Amino acid sequence: MIVCLCHSVSDKKLRQLVLEEGISDMKGIRRCTALGSQCGKCVRHAKDILNETVASQYKQVS
Ligand code: FES
């Protein structure tokens, strides 16, 4: 599913950045994808996916 239409960033890409590149904040996501830098409508949904993915990773470790 595409989360950021302006920059064609999918939920899969966001999860990949967290799980494979170790990115854990919106600043890092923006740096890698430019997500949110145009209309900004995607930011809230992207944050939800980011938080959910980081939390699931934490659960796996503990
Ligand atoms: S949908 Fe992401 S900046 Fe517009």
Structure description:
The structure is a single chain. With 62 residues, this protein is mostly helical. It contains three helices and two strands; from the N terminus they run E-E-H-H-H. The chain has helices at 11-21, 26-33, 43-61; strands spanning 2-4, 9-10. Strands 1-2 form a two-stranded antiparallel sheet. Strand 1 and strand 2 form a beta hairpin. Helix 1 (11-21) runs parallel beside helix 3. It is elongated, with a radius of gyration of 11 Å. The mean pLDDT is 94.
Q: Can you give the helix content as a percent range?
A: 55-70%
Rg, Å, rounded:
11 Å
Mean pLDDT: 94
Q: How are the strands of the biggest sheet laid out side by side? A: 1-2
* Strand content range: 5-15%
Instruction: Give a quick account of the main beta sheet: strands, pairing sense, barrel closure.
Output: 2 strands, antiparallel
* End-to-end C-alpha gap: 29 Å
List the helices and strands and how they pair.
Blueprint: E1 2-4, E2 9-10, H1 11-21, H2 26-33, H3 43-61
Antiparallel strand pairs: 1-2
Helix pairs in contact: 1-3
The site of FE2/S2 (inorganic) cluster has 12 residues, from loops.
